C-alpha cells in the first residue's frame, strides 16, 4: 500500500510539472508579443524594447521558463513601470491589467467557486446515485421509466433555461428566496447556504441526471454478476446484497466521473455564475479572455488542470480503498 | 429407503421468451436420501442447472414459472414465503458454483464473506463469525487459514477459490450441498483434490450431495445414484454403476458411446501414409511475458521454456497440459501468431525465425489455426460465407471464386451451404466450430494447429467434430497439432503426445506408449487424476 501511495504521488507531481510546461508553452511563447499586450495600442518600438527588457522577454525562452518555475516555487518580482511588485510563491504570473498577482485574483474568487462546486456535487450525488439504484432495482417497471424520463428532461434542459425557471419560480412567483447574492461562509453560514441553494440545484439537476444513468448501468451490470447470485443462494437479505455488494461495484465509474467533473465545474461554471451573479472563477476566465489578460487565463488553466489532476489522484486512492486489486496492478 | 430428505415431484420450469415459452425443465421427479449422493448429468440445455437452482428457490423474481413440488424435509420450497426460503438458503441447503472466481465478491476478504453468511443465519457476533470462517477454511484444507482468510478472491488459485466456496457452504452445516459443475473450470489434478474433499466432508458431516455435471467420469466416482437429463426431461435414473454399465435409455447409451475413454479402445487412426519427414521443427523455443506491475525491475514469466520438438508430416501431435503449462503459447508461436523470444522454427525446410511479416505471408497459407471458442473467433457482423472466404480474399482470390469455395467447404464440413448468408449467432456451438474449421481449411494448409477445438462442446458434438477432423486429415493430407487439457480426447486423436508443464516439455512419446507406460512422474500424476468411467 505504501508503495502504491508513493508511486501514485510521484506520478501526480510529474503530471503537474508537465502541465505547467505545456501551459507555459501555449500562453507565453506561442501568441503575439506579450509586451504589446502590456503596453497597449500605439506603443512605439523604443517603448516595446524597454518593456521587453523589464519583463525579461529579451532573455532566451528557457530562461524565461526557468523564471516562471522559480516564481511558482519561491516567488519573483515583476516591474512594469517605476515600481516593483513582488509576487509571492506560488506565483502563477502577474496581471498587469489588474496590477495584481494572478494568484490573488484567483484567491478572491476561489471560495465562491469551491462553495458552488462542492455544494452542487453533494446534491447531485445525493439525488443521482439513489435514483440510479432505484431505477436499476425496478428495471423496466414504472419507477424506472419515470426516473429515465426525468433524467432525459433534466439533462436536456440547458443551464440558462433550468436556472431561469428556478429563479422565476422561487424568487419571482413564490417569493421563498430573494435573488441570490454571494455571502462568504465565514461571515454567515446560514445565509451562505440559503443564497447558494438555487445555483446549487441549477448545476446539480443536469449532473444528477447523468449520474443516475451511470449508476443504473453499473448496478444492472453488477446485479447480473455471479457473486450476487452466490449471496442470494446463501440467503442474504436483498437490501444487504444491494447496499453492500452490488453498490460497491457500481460506484467505481461514479468516482471517476466525479473527479473529472469536480475540476471541470470548479473553473467551468460560467453560465451558472453569470446567471446568478456569483463572482467565481468561471466569470474571471470569461472576463480575462475578453480582455486578453493572458497571465490570468494561463493561471486559471493551471488551477483547473491541477484541480483535475489532484481530484483524479484522490479518485485513484478511493478506488484502492474500494477495490484492493488496484494496488496490485 | 427411509423418508427422503429432499424430494422433487413433477418439477417444471418455464421461461417466457420473445417467441413463446421455453420449457427448460419438464416434469422431473427424484428423491435424495439424507447423506445420499445423487448426480444429475446431461448436455448443455438439458435443464440440469435450472433444476439445481429451483431446489433453492432461486428462480423467484426472475420471471420463470416453476410448478411441481420441492420438499426439503417437511417444507415445500415452492409454497414458502420469500423470507422463509431466504432462511433455508445456505443454512439447510447450500450451493456451490462452476466458476469460483466470479462466484465470490472481488471487493471483500474471503473470511468476511464467509463470516457474513454465518452471521446472517446465526446472528453470531463479528468475532465468533470470523473464528467460524477461519475454522471452515481450515477444514477445507486452506493452509494457514487464519492469515489466508484476510486474502481477497484474486489472491487465491482456482482450486483454492473452490475450496473457499465450499467453506462458505459448510459454515452453517447444511443438510444438502448442491454442487453445480464444481470442477468444470479446474485442472484435472485440482479436480481430483476437490472431489476428494467433497467425499471426505460428506463422510464427515453426513450432508447429502446433489452433483450437477456434464462429466460422466466425475459422476462415476462421486455419487451413488444418477439421473440423466435430456431436453428438460429425466430419461433414466438408477444406481450409478448400473446406469453407466448397462444403460436402458438409448440417450444414455449414445452419451456413453460419445465419451472419449482414457482406458477404452481407441478408434483406428488413418493410415494413408506413414508419418514421414519432419514438417516443422522447433528448437529451443522460448517465450517470455513481462508481468504487470513490476515497475522498473524486469519481472518476466517464462510461458514457454526451451521447447524442442519435431512435427512429422501427416501425423497428429497431441499437446496436453494444465492451465498455465504454456501449451497455447506454444501453439500460437508455431503458427507465428506470437513472436518467440528466442529459439528457431523451421517449416517445410524453410527457416521462419525472424522472418518479417511480409516474407511470412506466403507461408501463412500453409499454417492455419482453429480456436477453442467458436463464438468469439468469428466476426459476429460478417456472414458465415464471408468469414470462410476471407482468408482466400486476403491471399488474392477473386470474390466470386472465394465465395464458391466457401460454399463447397461448408458442404464438406457438414453445414448447409444454402445458409452461407447467415450470421454466426444463428448456428449452434458445434456448427460454429465447423465454420472455424472450414475457414482454416480454405487455403488448403499443410499444418493445422487446433487449440482446444472441442473443449467448449458437449460430448456428442465433440465426437462429431473429432470424426470430422479425422476425415479431413485424410482427405486434405493434413498434419495436425492438437492442443487440449483433456487427456482422454488427446488419446483418441493423436499419434504422438507431448506433455507440458510450467512451460517445459516433460515427455514426448507415441500415444499408446505414453498412456500405457508413462515414463515421467508428472504424466503419471495427470493420468491418475482423470476420473475413469466405472
Describe the structure.
The complex is a heterodimer of chains A (329) and B (534). Chain A has 14 helices and 4 strands. With 329 residues, chain A is mainly alpha-helical. In chain A, the strands form 2 sheets. A two-stranded antiparallel sheet of chain A has the order 1-2. In chain A, strands 3-4 form a two-stranded antiparallel sheet. In chain B, helix 4 (126-139) packs across helix 6 (158-170), helix 10 packs across helix 16 (459-476) and helix 15 packs parallel to helix 16 (459-476). Chain B is globular and about 70 Å long. Chain B is built from 19 helices and 20 strands. Chain B has 534 residues and is α/β, with parallel strands linked by helices. Chain B has helices at residues 48-55, 82-88, 110-122, 126-139, 145-148, 158-170, 188-205, 216-222, 240-245, 250-258, 327-334, 357-364, 384-394, 399-412, 429-441, 459-476, 487-493, 511-516, 521-529, and strands at residues 6-17, 20-32, 37-41, 65-72, 75-76, 93-96, 176-180, 208-213, 225-230, 233-239, 278-290, 300-312, 316-320, 342-347, 350-351, 367-370, 447-451, 479-484, 496-501, 504-510. In chain B, the strands form 4 sheets. Chain B has a 6-stranded mixed sheet, sandwiched between helices. Chain B has a 6-stranded mixed sheet with strand order 16-17-18-13-19-20, sandwiched between helices. At the A-B interface, helix 9 and helix 10 of A face helix 2 and helix 3 of B. Chain A: Its main location: membrane. Chain A: It is found in: Cell membrane. Chain A: This is ABC transporter permease. Chain A: Keywords: Cell membrane, Membrane, Transmembrane, Transmembrane helix, Transport. Chain A: The chain crosses the membrane at residues 12-30, 112-134, 146-176, 196-214, 246-271, 296-322.
Amino acid at each position: 500500500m505504501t508503495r502504491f501511495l508513493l508511486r501514485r504521488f510521484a506520478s501526480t507531481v510529474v503530471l503537474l510539472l508537465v502541465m505547467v510546461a505545456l501551459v507555459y508553452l501555449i500562453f507565453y511563447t506561442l501568441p503575439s508579443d506579450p509586451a504589446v499586450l502590456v503596453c497597449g495600442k500605439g506603443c512605439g518600438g523604443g517603448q516595446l524594447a524597454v518593456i521587453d527588457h523589464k519583463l525579461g522577454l529579451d532573455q532566451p525562452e528557457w530562461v524565461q521558463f526557468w523564471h516562471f518555475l522559480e516564481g511558482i516555487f519561491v516567488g519573483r518580482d515583476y516591474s512594469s513601470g517605476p515600481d516593483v511588485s513582488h509576487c509571492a510563491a506560488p506565483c502563477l504570473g502577474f496581471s498587469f491589467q489588474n496590477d495584481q498577482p494572478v494568484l490573488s485574483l484567483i484567491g478572491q474568487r476561489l471560495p465562491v467557486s469551491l462553495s458552488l462546486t462542492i455544494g452542487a456535487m453533494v446534491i447531485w450525488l445525493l439525488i443521482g446515485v439513489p435514483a440510479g439504484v432505484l431505477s436499476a432495482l425496478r428495471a423496466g417497471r414504472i419507477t424506472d421509466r419515470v426516473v429515465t424520463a426525468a433524467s432525459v428532461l433534466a439533462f436536456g434542459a440547458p443551464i440558462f433555461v433550468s436556472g431561469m425557471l428556478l429563479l422565476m419560480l422561487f424568487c419571482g412567483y413564490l417569493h421563498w428566496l430573494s435573488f441570490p447574492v454571494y455571502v462568504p461562509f465565514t461571515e454567515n453560514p446560514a445565509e451562505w447556504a440559503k443564497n447558494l441553494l438555487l445555483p446549487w440545484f441549477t448545476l446539480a439537476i443536469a449532473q444528477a441526471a447523468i449520474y443516475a444513468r451511470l449508476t443504473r448501468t453499473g448496478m444492472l451490470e453488477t446485479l447480473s454478476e455471479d457473486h450476487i447470485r452466490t449471496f442470494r443462494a446463501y440467503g442474504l437479505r436483498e437490501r444487504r446484497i444491494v447496499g453492500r455488494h452490488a453498490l460497491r461495484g457500481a460506484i467505481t465509474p461514479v468516482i471517476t466521473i466525479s473527479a473529472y467533473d469536480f475540476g471541470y465545474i470548479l473553473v467551468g461554471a460560467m453560465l451558472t455564475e453569470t446567471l446568478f451573479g456569483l463572482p467565481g472563477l468561471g466569470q474571471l476566465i470569461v472576463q480575462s479572455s475578453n480582455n486578453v489578460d493572458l497571465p490570468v487565463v494561463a493561471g486559471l488553466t493551471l488551477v483547473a488542470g491541477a484541480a483535475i489532476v489532484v481530484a483524479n489522484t484522490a479518485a485513484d486512492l478511493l478506488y484502492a480503498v474500494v477495490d484492493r486489486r488496484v494496488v496490485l496492478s | 429407503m427411509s423418508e427422503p430428505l429432499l424430494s422433487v415431484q413433477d418439477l417444471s420450469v418455464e421461461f417466457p421468451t420473445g417467441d413463446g415459452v421455453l420449457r427448460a425443465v419438464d416434469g422431473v421427479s427424484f428423491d435424495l436420501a439424507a447423506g445420499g449422493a445423487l448426480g444429475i448429468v446431461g448436455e448443455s440445455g438439458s435443464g440440469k442447472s435450472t433444476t439445481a437452482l429451483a431446489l433453492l428457490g432461486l428462480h423467484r423474481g426472475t420471471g420463470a414459472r416453476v410448478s411441481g413440488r420441492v420438499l426439503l424435509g417437511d417444507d415445500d420450497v415452492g409454497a414458502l414465503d420469500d423470507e422463509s426460503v431466504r432462511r433455508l438458503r445456505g443454512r439447510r441447503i447450500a450451493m456451490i458454483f462452476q466458476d469460483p472466481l466470479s462466484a465470490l465478491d472481488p471487493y471483500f476478504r474471503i473470511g468476511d464473506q464467509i463470516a457474513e453468511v454465518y452471521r446472517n443465519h446465526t446472528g453470531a457476533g463479528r468475532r465468533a463469525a470470523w473464528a467460524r470462517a477461519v475454522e471452515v477454511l481450515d477444514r477445507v484444507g486452506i493452509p494457514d487459514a487464519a492469515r489466508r482468510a484476510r486474502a481477497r478472491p484474486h489472491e487465491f488459485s482456482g482450486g483454492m477459490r473452490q475450496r473457499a466456496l465450499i467453506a462458505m457452504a459448510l459454515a452453517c452445516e447444511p443438510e444438502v450441498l448442491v454442487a453445480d459443475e464444481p470442477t468444470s473450470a479446474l485442472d484435472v489434478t485440482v479436480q481430483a483434490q476437490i472431489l476428494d474433499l467433497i467425499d471426505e466432508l460428506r463422510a464427515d458431516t453426513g450432508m447429502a450431495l446433489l452433483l450437477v455435471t456434464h462429466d460422466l467420469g466425475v459422476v462415476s466416482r462421486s455419487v451413488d445414484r444418477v439421473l440423466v437429463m435430456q431436453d428438460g426431461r429425466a430419461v433414466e435414473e438408477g444406481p450409478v454403476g448400473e446406469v453407466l454399465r448397462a444403460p436402458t435409455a438409448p440417450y444414455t447409451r449414445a452419451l456413453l458411446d460419445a465419451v472419449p475413454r482414457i482406458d477404452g479402445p481407441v478408434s483406428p487412426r488413418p493410415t494413408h501414409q506413414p508419418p514421414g519427414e519432419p514438417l516443422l521443427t522447433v528448437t529451443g523455443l522460448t517465450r517470455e511475458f513481462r508481468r504487470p506491475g513490476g515497475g522498473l525491475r524486469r519481472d518476466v514469466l517464462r510461458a514457454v521454456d526451451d521447447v524442442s520438438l519435431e512435427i512429422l508430416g501427416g501425423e497428429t501431435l497431441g499437446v496436453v497440459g494444465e492451465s498455465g503449462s504454456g501449451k497455447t503459447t506454444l501453439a500460437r508461436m508455431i503458427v507465428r501468431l506470437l513472436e518467440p523470444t528466442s529459439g528457431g522454427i523451421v517449416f517445410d525446410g524453410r527457416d521462419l525465425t525472424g522472418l518479417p511479416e511480409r516474407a511470412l505471408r506466403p507461408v501463412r497459407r500453409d499454417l492455419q489455426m482453429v480456436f477453442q471458442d467458436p463464438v468469439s473467433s468469428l466476426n459476429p457482423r460478417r456472414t458465415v460465407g464471408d468469414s470462410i472466404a476471407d482468408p482466400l480474399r486476403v491471399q488474392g482470390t477473386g470474390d466470386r471464386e472465394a465465395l464458391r469455395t466457401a460454399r463447397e467447404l461448408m458442404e464438406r464440413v457438414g453445414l448447409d451451404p444454402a445458409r452461407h448468408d447467415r450470421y454466426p449467432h444463428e448456428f449452434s456451438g458445434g456448427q460454429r466450430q465447423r465454420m472455424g474449421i472450414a475457414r482454416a481449411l480454405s487455403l488448403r494448409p499443410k499444418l493445422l494447429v487446433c487449440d482446444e477445438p472441442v473443449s467448449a462442446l458437449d460430448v456428442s458434438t465433440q465426437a462429431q467434430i473429432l470424426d470430422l477432423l479425422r476425415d479431413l486429415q485424410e482427405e486434405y493430407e493434413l498434419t495436425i497439432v492438437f492442443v487440449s487439457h483433456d487427456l482422454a480426447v488427446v488419446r483418441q486423436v493423436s499419434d504422438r503426445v507431448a506433455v507440458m508443464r510450467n512451460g517445459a516439455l516433460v515427455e514426448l512419446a507415441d500415444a499408446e506408449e505414453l498412456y500405457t507406460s508413462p515414463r515421467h512422474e508428472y504424466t503419471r500424476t495427470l493420468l491418475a487424476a482423470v476420473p475413469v468411467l466405472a
